Amino acid sequence: MDQRTSSDQRAAFSPVRLDTGRPETHRPSASSTDGRSTDTAASRPSAPPKRSTDDVVFDVDDVSVHYGSAPALVNVSLTIQRRKITAFIGPSGCGKSTFIRCFNRTNDLIPNARVQGRIHYHNQDLYAKDVDPVEVRRRIGMVFQKPNPFPKSIYDNLTFGPKVNRMKVDYDEVVETSLRRAALWDEVKGKLKQNAYSLSGGQQQRLCIARALTVDPEVILMDEPCSALDPIATAHIEDLMRELERDYTIIIVTHNMQQAARVSDRTAFFTAEVESENDDRRFGRLVEIDDTSKIFSNPSDRRTEDYISGRFG
Ligand SMILES: Nc1ncnc2c1ncn2[C@@H]1O[C@H](COP(=O)(O)OP(=O)(O)OP(=O)(O)O)[C@@H](O)[C@H]1O
Ligand SMILES: [Mg+2]
Questions:
Q1: What stretches of 10-73 show up as alpha helix (H) in DSSP?
Q2: Contact predicate 63/115, CB 8 Å
Q3: How far apart are CA 44 and CA 290, in angstroms?
Q4: Using a 6 Å CB cutoff, which residues line ligand 1?
């Protein structure tokens, strides 16, 4: 089956009730021969598009995040384009991690975090009461700064998600497909029963990417996925991202300007500035988002230029 068609069909999740859990029709369905799911019409959006075009996966409108009463990020509006890599860059503390967590509702898991504003995922309010955050996190997977495989075998790391999600799939096939997609198969195919901790850091990170792919997501969020890796392992992950871009929408947070310039199609620059002379609190703000080539050659805002040329941050 053509993966693009499959992925298009999976565009949005239907409303699911938080109190009753996911109905059967919203569970990941049986895998096709390529290891990706073949969704049914039941899981396709029923309402006509309201706000976004087909190329917009996320439409973020005036989002602010507070921790307790302290604002971390304010008034962010942008769109995330389908099957593009979008990089979030900016100085430490400007809210990049806070913001990327908004896209799969992992801020919900932080007790004092409060998200305001609207994020539409394929025209559907991601934060609507009837949207199941667990289903959100399956559709929108995440890879963290430090590789975090489970203390289990390579094989068990990769079957964990499909088992938890009760996917009716051939586990051997999921393991092989996800490892191939994460460009790790050739290195580990002879030792699938070995503990994941026996892999190198770069291999562990690719395993975590493979693990994220096993539950058939549409979007992959990566928060500084290479910061713990050496240049060779970093190059592997960057190559992999370019491969994955053909089928997935990717958002990456990175402190590495060259990496943002190398791998991303669009770049969003955030900063955290003191708001007024009488108030030394810093709020993260989006300065601009544009094509990566424009951000790195001719940004619209002076602050972006200063940051990418190393004059601040
Ligand atoms: N769990 C939390 N509780 C309270 N405040 C938090 C929490 N997480 C982040 N913050 C605050 O929110 C602001 C933004 O933090 P965040 O981690 O999102 O920044 P960042 O841009 O990812 O920084 P870095 O580049 O260092 O990773 C900071 O002031 C930080 O102290
Ligand atoms: Mg961060």
A1: none
A2: yes
A3: 30
A4: 67, 72, 92-98, 110, 112, 284
In a domain, 302, yes or no: yes
In ligand 1, the atom with minimum distance to the C-alpha of 282 is 29
- Looking up residue 33, the CATH number of its domain turns out to be 3.40.50.300
Domain that holds residue 235: 3-308
Q: Which two tokens stand for residue 114?
A: 């409060």
Ligand 2 centroid to 117 CA: how many Å? Answer: 21
| Cα–Cα distance for residue pair 259/257, rounded to 1 Å | 5
Q: Look up the pTM and report it.
A: 0.84
Residue 50 belongs to a domain = yes
**Structure token pair of residue 266:** 């669009």
Task: Count structural domains, the chain.
Answer: 1
Give me ligand 2 centre to Cα 178, in Å.
Answer: 27
Reference 233, options 256, 262, 264, 201; nearest CA is 201
Q: Give the C-alpha separation, 219 to 138, whole Å.
A: 9
How far is the centre of ligand 1, averaged over its atoms, from the C-alpha of 116 (Å)?
17
- Give the dihedral of Cα atoms 216, 229, 264, 145; nearest 10 deg: 60
Beta strands 70-81; 56-67: pairing state? antiparallel
Q: Within 13 Å, how many C-alpha atoms sit on residue 129's CB side?
A: 1
Residue 313 lies in a domain: no
pLDDT tens profile 243-259: 999 999 999 999 999 99
Question: Is position 55 within any domain?
Answer: yes
Question: What DSSP state is assigned to residue 49?
Answer: P
216 Rama class: left (phi>0) / alpha (psi -120 to 50) / beta: left
Tens of pLDDT, residues 21-32: 223 232 333 333
pLDDT tens, 282-312? Answer: 889 999 999 999 999 999 999 999 999 987 6
Q: Whose alpha carbon is nearest atom 16 of ligand 1?
A: 95
